[in-house]
Amino acid sequence: MSLRIIVVLAVLTGVTGSPSVTIRPEADSADMTAHPNSVPETVEETEFFGKQNVSVEEEAEEDVMATGELNPNHYPAQRAAKVVQHYLNTQYGSPFRLFGLHNVQSGNAEDVADSGRKYQLEITVQEIISNTTEKCPAEVLFPRGEQRRSPQVQASCEELLKNTKAQEEALFKQYKMNPSLLSANNIPDSFGHMEPDSRPLWHLGIVASSFVMLNESTENTLYNMAQVANITQLETENEQLKFDCHILLHEMVSQEIIHWKLLFTWSPPEGVKVLQMEQLPHCHEGAKPPNTS
Ligand SMILES: *[C@@H]1O[C@H](CO)[C@@H](O)[C@H](O)[C@H]1NC(C)=O
Ligand SMILES: *[C@@H]1O[C@H](CO)[C@@H](O)[C@H](O)[C@H]1NC(C)=O
Ligand SMILES: *[C@@H]1O[C@H](CO)[C@@H](O)[C@H](O)[C@H]1NC(C)=O
Ligand SMILES: *[C@@H]1O[C@H](CO)[C@@H](O)[C@H](O)[C@H]1NC(C)=O
After folding, report:
1. Ligand minimally distant from the alpha carbon of residue 124
2. Ligand 2 pocket member 11 (CB < 6 A)
3. Cα 131 to middle of ligand 1, angstroms
4. pLDDT, mean over the chain
5. Could you report the per-residue pLDDT of 157-191, keeping only the tens digit for each?
6. What is the mean pLDDT of residues 93-112?
7. Per-residue pLDDT averaged across 239-267, rounded?
8. For atom 8 of ligand 2, which residue has the closest CA?
């Protein structure tokens, strides 16, 4: 297993600002960009990690979980901190509010009797759209037991919870009043571009994906959102917008691209709620998914 991690130093002009985003591909996967089905693996890392650097000399320690004070730049602290990002998105994310992990200041891990392992972290969280950061204390418990349960997170980043109600209401109204139902594919495309109109759908896709990434995370994973393969608005009678979407997640430890199908709703007062999540059969890059029928 390779623990290569992509340290992307490309600086973007931001999630809101520029009409198109160009991603500098990873040097040793440059050939992938020519492939029409290739996944822009570095997009979310670029947006969410910014200039953060993660050093990963720790492969040898994989089996023995680090305990006590952690190196904030190493995987155990970074993985736990990443779970906080997903948690914040599930709680407070919207098309106008997205959280990213900026960096980790300090971390501590301990075994908690029979219940699991607890990480206490001091991290800097970034609200990507307003490009503001805040230092936040956070705690992540990875439960232990027969049955895998999702990590439990406590975090407080009050200053990042800016009021985005007016923008949300305006977008919601625009989507509700559209004469036809929205749909879009490949956000961003394999060159890392997306249309300005697709940007709110990309943000909604990231928030919905955070529910999966939070639920699926363990001490041994590092999930990033790679792409919204497609997203389709569904008819609703109530005051919600409903979307069906197919997303691609990048699990950076195994270097796998994982496909999920999600059904979620969004409204300004309720936020994003995931109604169904289903992992789709593994399909290798460029290969057809197995025919299961
Ligand atoms: C975000 O803010 C930082 C510090 O205030 C600044 O250096 C950086 O250029 C900003 N990034 C964007 C994308 O505007
Ligand atoms: C990257 O890591 C090095 C060594 O840990 C540190 O000195 C440097 O400030 C870091 N850079 C950023 C942008 O975080
Ligand atoms: C979260 O994951 C667990 C274990 O895999 C699963 O049982 C549960 O249904 C998932 N939650 C949701 C909301 O799908
Ligand atoms: C969505 O994208 C996935 C992955 O590329 C594809 O398998 C699926 O058929 C697409 N669905 C729709 C409705 O376009």
Report:
1. 2
2. no
3. 6
4. 81
5. 998 998 999 999 999 999 999 999 999 999 999 89
6. 96
7. 96
8. 53
CATH architecture of 23-279: Roll (3.10)
Residue/partner pairs of 171-178 with CB below 8 Å, 24 or more apart:
171/95, 171/96, 171/200, 172/241, 172/266, 172/267, 172/268, 175/233, 175/241, 176/241
Q: pTM score, two decimals? A: 0.77
Q: Strand locations in the chain, DSSP E? A: 68-70, 99-112, 116-127, 132-143, 152-155, 183-187, 223-234, 241-251, 256-267, 271-279
Q: Whose CA is nearest to atom 10 of ligand 1?
A: 131
State mean pLDDT over 259-286: 89
Q: What is the DSSP string of 73-130?
A: TSHHHHHHHHHHHHHHHHHH-BTTB-EEEEEEEEEEEEEETTTEEEEEEEEEEEETTT
